Amino acid sequence: MRAIVYRHGRSEPSLEEIRDPVVREGEVVVLLQAAALNHRDVWIMQGKYPGIQEGIIMGSDGAGLYNGSSLLINPNQNWGTDSNHQSSGYQILGMPANGTFAERIVLPEDRLVPTPGHLSAEEAAALPLGGLTAYRVLFRRCELTSTDKVCISGIGGGVALLAFQFALALGAEVWVTSSDPQKIAEAKKMGAAGGFRYTEQDWSKSMKKASGGFDVIVDSAGGKGFSNLVSMCKPGARIGIYGGTRGTIQNLSPQQIFWKQISILGSTMGSDSDFDEMVDFVDSHKIHPKIDSIYTLEEVADAFSRMEKGEQFGKIVLKIGAES
C-alpha cells in the first residue's frame, strides 16, 4: 500500500510503497478515504515533537470504510480512567504509532465511530483531533454557555475554526483575532460578530470597547500578547489554552487575574467520552468542518508547505481513495 512515512533527515514527507499492515486479534482494517493535516505533523517533520520514530506512518486525522460503513477514527490512545487529565501513557495516532496518511490502517474496533451522515469523507477526516481539542477546551474546561461572549484567537487554523463553529452552533456571540484581515473577513461571513488584528497598536483596548469584554477566551498562542487577552476579560471569565505557538507568557498581572476572578485553564486533546460527545454535537447541529484545500497523497509536500506557511483557513485534507 502507499503511505506517507517519516524518514529522519528529510525535509519533506516521503510517499512510499510499503507492506500492508498486519491485523492482530481485536483489530480491524480500515480503508482510508481521506486524512487531514495538523500542526503536529509539521513539527514532527522538523524534529520538534517527542517520541519521533523512524519509518512511522504519519497522520492523526482520518475517515474511512469498514464493513461497508463510513467511520471516523478516534486518534486517542490510552487516555486513562480519569476524565480530568490524560494518563502518563497517553499517545496520539500518527507518532509513535502508525497513523492515517495511508491507504489502510489497522486499529482496535473501539477506535471507530460512525460518521455523521451529513459529512463528506473529506469533512469527516477534518474533524477528529481538531474537533476533540476544540470541544474539550470550550465545553469541558471553559464550560461555555449560549449566553457567553467568546473570543477565539488566531482564527484560521483547524482547532480555532472548529471552536468558532461550535460556539456559534451553541448560540454564543463570537469574536475573533488574526494578523490577516482576510481571515477576519471570512470569519465574519461565517457569523463572527467582529474581529481585530492583533498586530495593530492597542488592538485589545479597541476590541474590548467594541465587544464589551469576554466571558470565554480560547487561545493557542501564549507569548507576550497573552496579557492582552486577560485585559479583555469580564469578571469571572475563563481563558482556555490549548497551545503555545508564540512561546512563554510574559507581563501577566496577577492583580487582574485574582481581582476579576479569572480562571486560566489548560486543555489538550480530550477523553474518549469527549470524542463521542463532540461527534454527537456535530451531528445534532449539522456542522460542516471548514475545508481549506484538498491534495492527493502525491501532493503531500505541497500540503505540508501550505500548513507550514500558515496560509490556510480551515483544514488541509489529503484525499486517499476508497469511495463509499
Summarize the topology.
Blueprint: E1 2-5, E2 14-17, E3 27-36, H1 39-45, E4 61-66, E5 69-73, E6 76-77, E7 91-92, E8 104-108, E9 112-114, H2 121-125, H3 128-141, E10 149-152, H4 158-170, E11 173-178, H5 181-190, E12 194-197, H6 203-211, E13 214-219, H7 226-231, E14 233-241, H8 254-259, E15 263-266, H9 272-285, E16 291-296, H10 300-309, E17 315-319
Parallel strand pairs: 10-11, 10-13, 11-12, 13-14, 14-15, 16-17
Antiparallel strand pairs: 1-2, 3-4, 3-8, 3-17, 4-5, 5-9, 6-7
Structure description:
The protein is an alpha/beta fold and 324 residues long. The chain folds into two domains: 2-127 and 289-319, Alpha-Beta Complex (Quinone Oxidoreductase, Chain A, domain 1); 132-266, Rossmann fold (3-Layer(aba) Sandwich). It contains ten helices and 17 strands. It has helices at 39-45, 121-125, 128-141, 158-170, 181-190, 203-211, 226-231, 254-259, 272-285, 300-309; strands at 2-5, 14-17, 27-36, 61-66, 69-73, 76-77, 91-92, 104-108, 112-114, 149-152, 173-178, 194-197, 214-219, 233-241, 263-266, 291-296, 315-319. Strands 3, 4, 5, 8, 9, 16 and 17 form a seven-stranded mixed sheet that branches. α3 crosses α4 (158-170). The two termini are 19 Å apart. The model has no long low-confidence stretch (mean pLDDT 96).
